[in-house]
Specification:
297 residues; two-stranded antiparallel sheet; 2 domains
Length: 297
């Protein structure tokens, strides 16, 4: 069982991006320019040190024995002192914390490029997983070594594991801005590699016991809720289940861009909401049909 949670800090996010980039051909493993540039700026600042102290300045002036070039030396020392003072002011002003914010902004800016770079390996992994998953035992036994040996499915198991490792690496590498109002569970990180239907909210009239949406829509709402819950509990098994079409309306798919990724998060949030509506004649029949379908499931 594996779980995937939002990464706690900049260093962990950068590590995840590097690990996923290592899956690509060598020429594509470099960090995107916004990330590399931000790292370079702060590395350069850290390498500058504290600059000359007042004692260093006094010593260099005293040791200078050419009056004609003294103005140039003073200009040089003045520039070094100004740079030192600026760096110290920046450090005293919380440069470290601002560097984290700058790096997070650079990572978000890099999402479109990361998605484009990951797309070929994602496509291969998703196709491989779909083929291999069909040859594995049903349910959790698909990832159980003993069940794999009994089913003589070692080759598809290895193929599935490699594909799942690739998909999970991409999930960890691409940042997802989750809702902070409680409407979007952690499990919605799955939207990095899975498209979800545009459904919800669940309808209720406060009187009828159950979900009042038409049965097909209610089934899609249930599928999204189950997807999020399952992914939070076991990401690996859930990705395998998506490849096996176990979640109606959900498919393995990399978003086209950052906007599409944000739209998927919004869909997850909407599917988890409940809306109260006025009673209508068809609601009771919908509620009975949905209750029967969910009992069977």
């Amino acid at each position: 069982m594996s779980t995937i949670r939002p990464l706690p800090g900049v260093a962990a996010r950068l590590d995840a991006i590097r690990e996923a980039l290592a899956l690509l051909p060598a020429k594509q493993q470099h960090l995107p320019a916004p990330i590399a540039g931000t790292i370079g700026v702060f590395d350069a600042i850290r390498a500058m040190g504290d600059g000359p102290s007042v004692f260093d300045i006094a010593g260099r002036i005293a040791a200078h024995n050419d009056p004609d070039t003294l103005p140039a030396l003073l200009d040089q020392l003045d520039a070094e002192k100004r740079r030192r003072d600026l760096i110290n002011d920046a450090r005293n002003g919380g440069l470290h914390h601002k560097s984290d914010a700058a790096m997070n902004a650079a990572i978000r800016e890099s999402v479109p490029e990361l998605l484009d770079r990951f797309r070929p390996v994602f496509t291969d992994a998703a196709a491989t997983l779909a083929t291999a998953a069909a040859k594995l035992p049903d349910g959790p036994a698909a990832l159980d070594p003993a069940a794999i040996l009994e089913a003589d499915a070692r080759s598809p198991y290895r193929q599935a594991r490699d594909a799942l490792d690739t998909l999970e690496a991409i999930v960890r590498a691409v940042p997802v801005l989750l809702h902070h109002d409680g409407s979007t569970p952690v499990g919605s990180l799955v939207v990095t590699v899975a498209n979800v239907p545009n459904v919800g909210p669940a309808l209720t009239d406060g009187l009828t016991n159950g979900i009042l949406n038409p049965p097909e829509e209610a089934e899609a709402i249930r599928a999204v809720g189950k997807l999020v819950k399952d992914f939070a509990a076991d990401a690996t098994l859930t990705l395998l289940g998506i490849a096996r079409c176990e979640y109606p309306g959900v498919e393995l798919s990399l978003p086209a861009d950052a906007e599409a990724l944000a739209d998927r998060v919004e869909r997850i949030a909407t599917a988890h909401k409940v809306k109260r509506v006025e009673p209508r004649p068809e609601h009771e029949a919908n509620a009975r049909a949905n209750a029967r379908a969910w009992r069977v499931a």
